[in-house]
Amino acid sequence: MADDSSSRKRKVRGTKIRTDRAQKSGRKAEKELRRKAAASERNGDTPLSAPEEVAPEPFVETDEIDSIRNRIQGWLEAEQPVHLIGPTGCGKTSLALSAAAERGRPVVWLNGDEAVDTAALVGAHAGGERYEERDQFVGGVDKRTQIVRERWVDNPLSVAVREGATLVYNEFSRSDPAAHNVLLSLFEEGVLERPGKRGDDRTIDVHPEFRAILTSNDIEYAGVHQQQDALLDRVVGVHIDYYDAETEREIVDAHVELPSDQIDEVVSTTQQLRDELDIVVGTRAAITTAKGLSVFNTSDNGIADELLADVFTDVLAPKVSGGREGDDVTELKDRISETV
Ligand SMILES: Nc1ncnc2c1ncn2[C@@H]1O[C@H](COP(=O)(O)OP(=O)(O)OP(=O)(O)O)[C@@H](O)[C@H]1O
């Protein structure tokens, strides 16, 4: 990963997650105002000033993040589907969405899941639309013809292929590999087969601007399927790992309002626990811990070790024995207390 923090440039897009209660209630008032604004518009009353749109999640750009994103964008430019692989919570999805957004093309989002099959990707017939034609041309003869027209519904992959969108297929390896047979001809021959459609409609020619970014955890994670070699042979793999301390610090700081010395402490503890524990301690855990401290830590003199250990334990407990109170969680807390 990038090593020279002095040359690091830092841009943040989006805004921090507001944490104090007063600001949270502000959000409720905004929702109420937005509802009233819509109601007044419907009744033709003088329009209330609807609150500004809620800004998107912040996206931190540092040299380290830019260099990975540039690799992704370069492969997309080379018309190669990109497979982003990395541990849970390392930033794959954020990177994929940022690289997709930079293209200036529509983005189609798809989540990998056991239930995803070819139809869920491509589309299916969604029942028939019944029409009745009546013919009373001959007096006294009332001829009725029932016509049932099959209604086809395009699903995300067909939409993305037709519109030249960037498909972001998140955690794609959670889907059954058999569902991905349609990706083989799509990525190789540039044709999307639509099983269930007939004649000319059976295939869609791929829009020249269509691109795909697949993300997944490493194969040993629970709930993921080993994908077929033929598919993996048609994509390029960009492996990413957790960011270095400086970038992770920028990310936590972009999400949560907390004194910078406390952010340093959260990130350095996260990186130590990541090395010491045999569970996943991702960037998301650092952000969640910082959010917890922004509420629980009322002291002006930094973070008490016990509070830091308690908050980290709450954040990481669900990863041990399903979070049920028991030996694993007690042992986890002991390990965390030794580290903080
Ligand atoms: N460059 C970034 N700027 C701001 N926040 C980021 C950035 N990268 C990651 N994050 C934040 O870190 C957390 C984890 O990121 P993300 O969800 O992208 O990871 P992931 O590897 O896709 O996780 P999972 O494997 O669970 O899908 C999220 O809260 C995300 O908002």
TrEMBL record:
Stored Gene3D superfamilies: P-loop containing nucleotide triphosphate hydrolases
Region described as Disordered: 1-57
Pfam families: AAA_5 (PF07728)
Catalysis performed (reactions): ATP + H2O = ADP + phosphate + H(+)
This protein's record includes keyword Hydrolase: yes
Compartments (UniProt record): Cytoplasm; Gas vesicle
SMART domains: AAA
GO molecular function: ATP binding; ATP hydrolysis activity
Family membership: Belongs to the CbbQ/NirQ/NorQ/GpvN family.
Name used for this protein in its record: ATPase AAA
Species name: Halostagnicola larsenii XH-48
